[in-house]
Give the backbone structure.
Amino acid sequence: MNPLFENRLNLTRREFFGRGALGIGTAALASLLSKTGGLGSEVSAPRSPVIPGLPDLPHFAPKARRVIYLFQNGAPTHVDLFDYKSRLQQLHGKPIPDGYIGGKRFSTMTGKADGKLILSPVEAFKQHGQSGAWVSAFLPHIASVADELCFLKSMHTDAVNHAPGISLILSGGQIPGRPSMGAWLAYGLGCDTSDLPAFAVMTSVSKGTSCGQIFYDFYWGSGFLPSRFQGVKFRGSTDPVLYIKSPEGMGRPMRREMLDDIAALNEIKLREYLDPEIATRIAQYEMAFRMQASVPELTDISREKDDVLGLYGPSVREPGTYAYNCLMARRLVERGVRFVQVMHAGWDQHNSITTELYTQCKDTDQPSAGLILDLKQRGLLDDTLVIWGGEFGRTPFIQGNLDDRKRWGRDHHPYAFTVFMAGGGVRKGMSYGETDDLAMNVVKDPVHVHDLQATVLKLLGIDHERLTYKFQGRHFRLTDVHGEIVSRILA
């Protein structure tokens, strides 16, 4: 028997379904080849500046074209930073009144919250700007741009621990395996440049922190989407992207010829197995080749003016710091990147509210405000959505001994927390939603994390119920089966 026919007769079930997954792989490869002029194009061949998304997107006119998510790993304490409640000072050191707990579930470090002692804010609050937004003395630079911000003070979530909480707010599910928000946008909207990825990620940690937060790859993963949509991590070093450099002695013409040969072999395998991940491999090799030229220019900040660098604070010149990453975020979106996820760990202050919170705010306050000012000066803020916030809040009651001030802390609190946004079509100088007089529970205009996701997609011109991907027989979406648009915060 002809070996080719015999091979087809011996096709396994896995191979059969793998070959049936042609759709997205062929589309991805066709899109790629149409931009590079074919597999055998020369180094100097012109390339399209745009990588398109789905043909029916956006669903309507977007107000934002790109997103910078300043994600604060570990859960910033809304009680000490944004959600001013005078009654916390009045009840400092007293047991939390009956009726505020109501059988709520907290982390195992708190257990039952009954009888826990109220802890007043560590620093004083003041109102700022024409909007009168309450911001604590911990964040003077963010306070100075309060009139540019929209505070969501009624956020709430379902998760009580960090990794499930971060996964839920970034991907719509507590269990890893779903595409993150950036991956959804890369899949749906594509990218305004072919020289950089649609979705970029940077991480940082405050020096000297005792917070043990880990940056799991699934925080920027593509889940069940083709892996070319996952976030590309930029490291804080002189070699920001792993494995992107060519070996010594290999020039770009030689690298181009080698990649063309590899792509030709991969195309043969793609036609044979119809596996979308082979198309992803071809696309990623091509992206890496283009990034060899674009990344050095991206990370060269020598031409940035001193007054611009001054917006971000003294550590902006140090690769790997939060300030440096905020500057890189501006440079990335300026060059057409769709979604930039800047993640900073160290907010998990179970016993360091009076010590490490000062360091954390010092490291993040000026760069966050500086990014907003920089975007505004360049005319980018109007169509760039900036989001600042963590996975949940911190408890209004103390974790630790009230008599040991150096060890004061707060536990995880999923029932109320604050996120703020700027630019990209959100209303300026607004505080939306309210918590009770102890910042314990949401009492007005609740915003679930799925509502935040639906609103972000709305600002980008996407109907969150229509951006779906079929996986294992079900059409999945970022907002799962939930999500209501918070229309009142839209400009």
Q: What stands out?
A: The CA atoms of residues 399 and 410 lie 5 Å apart. Residues 50-247+294-489 form a domain with the Alkaline Phosphatase, subunit A fold (CATH 3.40.720). The longest helix spans residues 276-299.
